[in-house]
Amino acid sequence: MTQHRDTGIGPPDEYLEAEIHRLLAEDPSVAEQGITVVRRENGLVLYGEVESRHRREEILRRVSERFPDLPVTSEIGVIRTQAPTEIEQLP
Question: Which of 55, 61, 21, 62 lies closest to 38 in space, CA to CA?
């Protein structure tokens, strides 16, 4: 038997996490699959890494719009991607 923690606010945790994953993956302006969602007593915490601040802000905006009654905290880091500084030569 599988048990889940239910905080009494909204759907059980596994449904909430699945809904947020679907929301982020299916939204063409976000298309993000690497975000972990943790439900805390005081709201949601999102973890992961994305390639830009804009994408992080868009993720937070989408989740906050979908769950306006749950405070959303971001632990999403931004990966600094840089263009190569050298030309790669293949043999």
Answer: 21
Report helix angle 53-66 to 13-26, nearest 10: 130
pLDDT in tens, 48-76: 999 889 889 999 999 999 989 889 999 99
Any bridge partners for residue 39, and if so which? 44
CA 8 to chain CA mean position, Å: 22
Rg from Cα positions in the chain:
17
**∠ CA(8), CA(27), CA(21), 5° rounding?**
40
Q: Say which DSSP state 48 is in.
A: E
The whole-model pTM stands at 0.70
| Residue whose token pair is 């990966």 | 79
Nearest CA-CA partner of 49 in 39, 64, 35: 35
Using DSSP's 3-state secondary structure scheme, residue 82 falls into coil
